[in-house]
């Protein structure tokens, strides 16, 4: 089957809000044949439980995704897949629903559900917290620490996260990376980008010192101190390759020595661009080692967005490429929470971004540049690492694929050339950098991939995290006063308020808490355990239809220190 | 109403006079039944048909606290009797002279009085402490919320009963056609710990989030109320006491100072009965029923700590709606008074209960054995400690055990001349003019011949006596002696409870242990029963050794000056090893005592029980021609017979493993007719049967009149004990099994076989 040889076949079959939609004719087949078995997988799971509950989950979730689904389908990135087929995809489930419903309606519904401890163990599997060590009883850093977590929807997860302290300069780097068409690019960027940034920030003398050390085989000054969850891995095989590229970069920086003090904004932009460039070059040059050769190609042909924050004292820089988002949580004088955006999404919803793309290409392409809210009708983010299919010329792509390993050659995706591909590059990794001077009222920063922002409004995020971190729930005491309130209304209100509080106490990690809300929130904005359990119980092949990978980093600031510096 | 329910609501008993527990079946027929949502009403419904002190008017007004109209009504009633009510008058303090109330200082001047009743509710504590002579009234306020609603579409009728749902922790009653509903939450909010609350009480806020669980259970029970409109959530603090029972009676320190407070949120329903008994108390000197469980004197100053009260009421308030299982111990406010051996015993697996603030051992959990968690151990059936206590009892019977009984109240009464003997002879019913070194078991009776105290008194010398009373007698007995002993500077009475650690050495081998430790012969010839001698044990001298064990088993009580406690305990345990000594607790003691038909003051005996009624005529000096308190009453009983008789029952067809256990308060049936209730019970490991102790009355079949109870009446009846609705055959006995006293001894100890203790 064609799909089996695909490097990431799930990418082809999933009808969800994919970053890349591939209108390859042959993908129709795997689409159907792969999706069909889904009910059969489900069957044993559901056999003992009330099917209507699962279906209600589906229906419920469809609320959110239906629009995406229908728009994707209707606007035809599955343009070879007629509506009829789409219907066929879903019908088996309906039939199935009716069939099981009739058979097993009265049986106990409990068994299918995850218990709260099970839910918690899933939610907490990837959580990580780092607390900036206090120096002599005083924390002189403007960062108190951070909480991070990620919840996979893809298998394997395509999101990555990184956090590190710059050891040769001051400051802390934090970033989330959302991969598409596989996780290879996101993985590479998460390993490499911070080195590029750190090197860009290093003063000339330090660069020289490092270069001399490498030259003479002396021990290298450590540049970064990583704060990694055990699940966050680094590729050992590619480290030498990556190191050489990095070394070339700092050698060039040494040669270019401008003598000026390094501007953080510039450093970030340079680092992003340089890394993307290196990824591209490595893929073009190839590697004698066939594993590495395949790796660099996978990295280059897949893509990743990046949203990176650099915090040094009161200076906060956020460099963003793609549609992940950074948001500042601000506590107003009355104690309430508000959100300040520190990044712009690079997608079709951003008019400036659409405008930018259009100005970079001839007027003749204006119509084909952005279709169905996607770049060239395919790609959701308008900026990204990797994705050489949107950057290289057609000739280059063909040459590399043909000379590349068989696995690459067999891959329908890599061979496919985007339609209306006339004036590459269409895509850039250059970030937009926003600088913000931290104020005492700026309490925290949330970096998250679009999996979170699709489900939650930033205002809610600010409130939930703010209340979590302060441990204070700004729930004004209720007073009936002269209002007409019934016992039932009051009861509903109180239950809701209580649920809010109780969900806070379950989590020791702000990011986990946020994920709990993102996945489990009901229409009242409170965590509904049943819904949470259902969402997390979804089998692998269905999960991606209802949610995206979610990766969150919550950085907590030290208002005390910020107040003193500023 | 029946006062008994005031202090011990038993949700599992539904046959209490004047107190109706309605079960689900009945609920279907009650007005307003359409509101009852769930078919299975797991708890019970309760109907309060009380007439209140202030009159029926208040009830029909249906305001929770006596409102203005209530006062108006009371004013009208009382002014005709010459009573004045001063409103908006604040009391600064109560004047006391020579230990008596003389007047009240108010912001409107001085009011002379003989009697003062502190019924200031949650302010009673502060008011009690405002005078020169503080009166400690241990209570503490907690916030209490209740909901008022607008009337139902079809307003509720006045005769709708009050519904109590203990599972939901709520009560619901009619209020102006709508409902009034409050409850006792699991997480109470104590307040006013630091006092001075009069002003703040008006500014208390509604707390809906706190009320949420109660509202949820209200709507679960009566879903149709959902559409009912809220009028108000009232925050009205209630005061709670350390043991969930109200506080009434005269102060132990100030005569004429009475208290009625700490109603634990049941003031309205208890008001009538409580007022009645307090009035009787003030007029007659004592109420017409035994109210010891409510008596202010059950507390001392040791319960006056605000921290203690705050913590304890947080435990008490949720208990209002919980099932009260037998042998329940409070978990808060513990480890206040402890024996010097506490840590040693605790390390050996002791499990503790508390009496009058003193930690006492229940039993020792052997190493490697696990008991159930506190919550799981709650039962009315065979408890998890059954085998543990059984092995302790066996050791008491066959070898020797040590029980730390330091909590006993200990007084020393001495005089320069004969004053002590003379006064005590008058106050106590048994003859105390015994040779020095003898111990006398005697009652301290009131004018009616009832037991105010049941104690052992050792004559230490011609002029001094050592008195041992139950633990909770510390305040009551002290007050009684102070009030009845003559004012004489040559007569001194001292509370030495804290000076001595008491160890009870029970068992046939106790004599061996003690003689080895003291190098003194302890055999009955040298140390007969009911004897007291100061001697040395180990290195320590001046240990008061008494040949009593409070159980009828052979053995000794050691009263050890506390600094020697650890030494003597270690010596006893070391020396006892070869005799198989081990630690035991009060549960073993209790089993031993009850199977021997030993009555205990506070459980079996009270101020309305006389020696004649419990077969203790031999402990009364009626024939000696000496005057003593209660003599006339006893003479009359001797002549006319008694109207109740303390009887022992042995359950015949009771399955210890499967059947509900008797605990106390079970009805006794003679030939199918109710004749009384049990007062205590225990499993006898020797008889392998349950033993219940209780009083049997003889009620006329037609009139219900109390008739004289004769020995024949007791002996010629078929008895049954009703345990939670199931009746078990019981054998009645007026005297203990003599076989139990015949010591089962090993053959090498035949020389001791003639030794009998009681």
From TrEMBL, chain A:
Tell me which family the UniProt entry assigns to this protein: Belongs to the PP2C family.
This chain's protein is named [Pyruvate dehydrogenase [acetyl-transferring]]-phosphatase 1, mitochondrial
One of the record's GO cellular component terms: mitochondrion
Its subunit composition reads: Heterodimer of a catalytic (PDP1) and a regulatory (PDPR) subunit.
Q: Which UniProt keywords apply?
A: Acetylation, Calcium, Hydrolase, Magnesium, Metal-binding, Mitochondrion, Protein phosphatase, Transit peptide
Q: Which CDD domains match?
A: PP2Cc
Q: Which InterPro entries match?
A: PP2C, PP2C_BS, PPM-type-like_dom_sf, PPM-type_phosphatase-like_dom
Record bears the keyword Signal: no
- Limits of the PPM-type phosphatase domain: 143-557
UniProt key word Iron: no
Q: Which Pfam families match?
A: PP2C
Task: List its EC numbers.
Answer: 3.1.3.43
Q: Which organism is it from?
A: Meleagris gallopavo (Wild turkey)
Q: What is its main location?
A: mitochondrion
- Alphabetical list of SUPFAM superfamilies matching this protein: PP2C-like
UniProt cofactor(s): Mn(2+); Mg(2+)
Q: Where does the UniProt annotation locate this protein? A: Mitochondrion
Molecular function via GO? [pyruvate dehydrogenase (acetyl-transferring)]-phosphatase activity; metal ion binding
Origin superkingdom: Eukaryota
TrEMBL record, chain B:
Q: Which UniProt keywords apply?
A: Mitochondrion, Transit peptide
Specify the superkingdom.
Eukaryota
User: In what residue span(s) does the GCVT N-terminal domain sit?
Assistant: 341-624
GO CC, one annotated term: mitochondrial matrix
Q: Which residues form the Aminomethyltransferase C-terminal domain?
A: 644-737
- Occurrences of domain FAD dependent oxidoreductase (ranges): 78-281
> Any idea where the FAD dependent oxidoreductase central domain is?
284-339
Q: Which residues form a coiled coil?
A: none
Per UniProt, subcellular location reads as: Mitochondrion matrix
Subunit details for this protein?
Answer: Heterodimer of a catalytic (PDP1) and a regulatory (PDPR) subunit.
The family line of this record is: Belongs to the GcvT family.
Name this protein carries in UniProt: Pyruvate dehydrogenase phosphatase regulatory subunit, mitochondrial
Q: Which organism is it from?
A: Meleagris gallopavo
State the encoding gene: PDPR
């Amino acid at each position: 089957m064609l799909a089996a040889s695909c490097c990431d076949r799930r990418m082809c079959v999933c009808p969800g809000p994919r970053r890349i939609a591939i209108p390859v004719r042959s993908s129709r087949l795997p689409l159907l044949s792969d999706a069909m078995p889904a009910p059969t997988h489900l069957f044993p799971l559901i056999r003992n439980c009330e099917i209507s509950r699962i279906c209600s989950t589906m229906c419920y979730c469809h609320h959110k995704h239906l629009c995406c689904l229908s728009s994707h389908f209707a606007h035809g990135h599955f343009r070879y897949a007629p509506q009829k087929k789409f219907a066929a995809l879903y019908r088996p489930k309906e039939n199935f629903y009716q069939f099981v419903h009739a058979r097993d309606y009265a049986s106990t519904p409990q068994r299918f559900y995850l218990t709260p401890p099970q839910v918690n163990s899933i939610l907490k599997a990837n959580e990580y917290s780092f607390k900036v060590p206090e120096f002599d009883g005083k924390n002189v850093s403007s960062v108190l620490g951070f909480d991070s977590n990620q919840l996979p929807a893809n298998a394997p997860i395509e999101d990555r996260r990184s956090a590190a302290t710059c050891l040769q300069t001051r400051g802390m780097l934090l970033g989330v990376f959302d991969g598409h068409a596989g996780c290879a690019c996101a993985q590479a960027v998460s390993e490499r980008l911070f080195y590029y940034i750190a090197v860009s920030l290093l003063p000339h003398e330090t660069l020289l010192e490092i270069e001399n050390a490498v030259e003479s085989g002396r021990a290298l000054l450590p540049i970064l101190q990583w704060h990694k969850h055990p699940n966050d891995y680094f590729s050992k095989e590619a480290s030498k390759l990556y190191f050489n590229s990095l070394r070339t970069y700092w050698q060039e920086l040494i040669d270019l020595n401008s003598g000026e003090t390094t501007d953080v904004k510039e450093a970030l932009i340079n680092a992003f661009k340089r890394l993307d460039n290196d990824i591209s070059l490595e893929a073009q040059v190839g590697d004698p080692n066939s594993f590495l050769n395949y790796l660099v190609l996978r990295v280059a042909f897949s893509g990743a967005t990046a949203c990176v924050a650099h915090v040094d004292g009161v200076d906060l820089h956020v460099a963003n490429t793609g549609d992940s988002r950074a948001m500042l949580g601000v506590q107003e004088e009355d104690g309430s929470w508000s959100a300040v955006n520190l990044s712009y999404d690079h997608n079709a919803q951003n008019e400036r971004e659409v405008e930018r793309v259009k100005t970079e290409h001839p007027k003749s392409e204006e119509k084909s540049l952005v279709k169905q809210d996607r770049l060239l009708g395919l790609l959701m983010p308008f900026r990204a690492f990797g994705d050489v299919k949107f950057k290289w010329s057609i000739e280059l792509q063909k040459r590399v694929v043909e000379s590349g390993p068989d696995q690459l050659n067999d891959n329908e995706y890599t061979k496919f050339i985007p339609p209306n591909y006339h004036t590459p590059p269409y895509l850039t990794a250059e970030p937009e950098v926003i600088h913000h001077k931290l104020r005492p009222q700026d309490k925290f920063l949330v970096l998250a991939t679009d999996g979170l922002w699709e489900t939650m409004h930033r205002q809610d995020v600010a409130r939930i995290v703010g209340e979590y971190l302060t441990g204070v729930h700004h729930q004004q005491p209720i007073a009936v006063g002269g209002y007409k309130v019934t016992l039932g209304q009051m009861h509903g209100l109180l239950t809701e308020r209580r649920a809010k509080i109780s969900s806070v106490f379950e989590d020791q990690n702000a990011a986990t808490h946020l994920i709990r809300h993102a996945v489990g929130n009901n229409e009242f904005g409170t965590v509904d355990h049943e819904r949470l359990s259902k969402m997390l119980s979804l089998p692998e092949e269905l999960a991606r239809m209802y949610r995206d990978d979610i990766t969150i980093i919550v950085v907590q600031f030290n208002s005390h220190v910020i107040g003193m510096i500023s | 109403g029946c006062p008994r329910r005031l202090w011990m609501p038993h949700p599992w008993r539904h046959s209490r006079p004047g107190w109706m527990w309605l079960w689900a079946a009945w609920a279907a027929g009650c007005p307003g039944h359409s509101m009852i949502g769930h078919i299975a009403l797991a708890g019970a419904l309760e109907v309060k048909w009380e007439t209140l002190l202030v009159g029926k008017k208040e009830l029909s007004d249906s305001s929770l606290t006596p409102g203005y109209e209530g006062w108006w009504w009371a004013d009208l009633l009382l002014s005709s009797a010459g009573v004045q009510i001063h409103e908006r008058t604040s009391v600064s303090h109560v004047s006391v002279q020579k230990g008596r109330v003389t007047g009240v200082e108010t912001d409107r001047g001085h009011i002379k009085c003989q009697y003062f009743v502190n019924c200031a509710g949650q302010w009673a504590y502060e008011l009690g402490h405002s005078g020169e002579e503080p009166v400690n009234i241990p209570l503490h306020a907690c916030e209490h919320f209740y909901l008022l609603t607008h009337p139902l579409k079809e307003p509720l009728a006045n005769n709708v009963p009050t519904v109590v749902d203990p599972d939901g922790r709520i009560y619901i009653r009619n209020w102006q056609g709508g409902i009034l509903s409050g409850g006792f939450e699991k997480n109470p909010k104590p307040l006013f710990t630091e006092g001075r609350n009069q002003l703040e009480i008006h500014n208390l806020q509604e707390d809906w989030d706190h009320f949420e669980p109660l509202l949820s259970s209200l709507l679960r029970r009566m879903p149709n109320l959902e559409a009912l409109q809220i009028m108000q959530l009232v925050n009205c603090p209630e005061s709670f006491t350390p043991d969930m029972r109200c506080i009434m009676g005269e102060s132990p320190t100030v005569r004429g100072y009475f208290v009625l407070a700490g109603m634990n949120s049941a003031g309205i329903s208890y008001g009538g009965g409580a007022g009645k008994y307090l009035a009787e108390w003030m007029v007659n000197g004592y109420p017409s029923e035994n109210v010891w469980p409510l008596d202010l004197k059950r507390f001392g100053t040791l319960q006056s700590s605000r921290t203690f009260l705050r913590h304890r009421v947080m435990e008490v308030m949720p208990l209002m709606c919980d099932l009260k299982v037998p042998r329940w111990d409070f978990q808060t406010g513990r480890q206040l008074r402890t024996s010097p051996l506490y840590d040693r015993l605790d390390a050996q697996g002791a499990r503790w209960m508390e009496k009058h603030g003193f930690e006492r051992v229940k039993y020792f959990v052997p190493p490697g054995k696990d008991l159930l968690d506190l919550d799981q151990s709650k039962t009315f059936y065979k408890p998890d400690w059954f085998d543990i206590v059984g092995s302790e009892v066996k050791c008491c019977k066959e070898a020797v055990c040590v029980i730390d009984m330091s909590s006993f109240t200990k007084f020393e009464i001495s005089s320069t001349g004969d004053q002590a003997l003379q006064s005590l002879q008058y106050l106590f019913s048994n003859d105390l003019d015994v040779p020095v070194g003898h111990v006398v078991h005697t009652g301290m009776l009131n004018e009616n011949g009832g037991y105010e105290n049941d104690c052992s008194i050792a004559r230490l010398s011609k002029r001094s006596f050592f008195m041992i009373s139950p633990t909770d007698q510390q305040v009551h007995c002290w007050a009684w002696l102070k009030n009845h002993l003559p004012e004489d500077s040559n007569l001194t009475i001292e509370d030495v409870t804290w000076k001595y650690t008491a160890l009870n050495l029970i068992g046939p081998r106790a004599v061996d242990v003690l003689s080895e430790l003291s190098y003194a012969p302890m055999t009955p010839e040298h140390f007969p029963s009911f004897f007291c001698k100061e001697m040395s044990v180990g290195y320590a001298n001046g240990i008061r050794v008494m040949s009593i064990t409070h159980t009828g088993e052979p053995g000794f009580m050691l009263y050890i000056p506390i600094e020697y406690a650890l030494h003597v305990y270690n010596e006893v345990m070391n020396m006892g090893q070869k005799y198989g000594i081990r630690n035991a607790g009060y549960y073993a003691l209790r089993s031993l005592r009850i199977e021997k038909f030993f009555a205990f003051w506070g459980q079996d005996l009270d101020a309305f029980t006389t020696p004649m009624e419990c077969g203790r005529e031999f402990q009364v000096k009626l024939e000696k021609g000496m005057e003593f308190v209660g003599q006339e009453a006893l003479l009359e009983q001797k002549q006319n017979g008694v109207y109740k008789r303390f009887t022992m029952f042995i359950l015949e067809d009771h399955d210890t493993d499967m059947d509900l256990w008797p605990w106390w308060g079970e009805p006794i049936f003679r030939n199918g007719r109710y004749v009384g209730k049990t007062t205590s019970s225990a499993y006898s490991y020797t008889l392998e049967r349950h033993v219940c102790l209780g009083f049997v009355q003889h009620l006329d079949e037609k009139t219900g009149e109390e008739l004289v109870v004769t020995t024949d009446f007791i002996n010629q009846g078929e008895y049954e004990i009703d345990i939670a609705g199931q009746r078990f055959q019981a054998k009645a006995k007026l005297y203990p099994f003599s076989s139990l006293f015949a010591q089962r001894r090993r053959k090498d100890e035949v020389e001791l076989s003639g030794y009998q203790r009681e």
